Amino acid sequence: MKINAILLAAGLSSRMRGPNKLLLPFEDDYVISKTYSALQSNELSSIAVVTGRDADKVGAYLDLREQDQLVHNINFERGMTSSIQAGLATLADSDGVIIALGDMPWLRTNDYDQLINHFNKHGASNKILVPWYGDKRGNPVIFGSEFFDTIMAHSEPNGCVKVVRENLDHVLNLNVETDRFIMDIDTLEDLERGSSNA
Question: Taking the domain 3-197, which CATH number applies?
Answer without folding.
Answer: 3.90.550.10
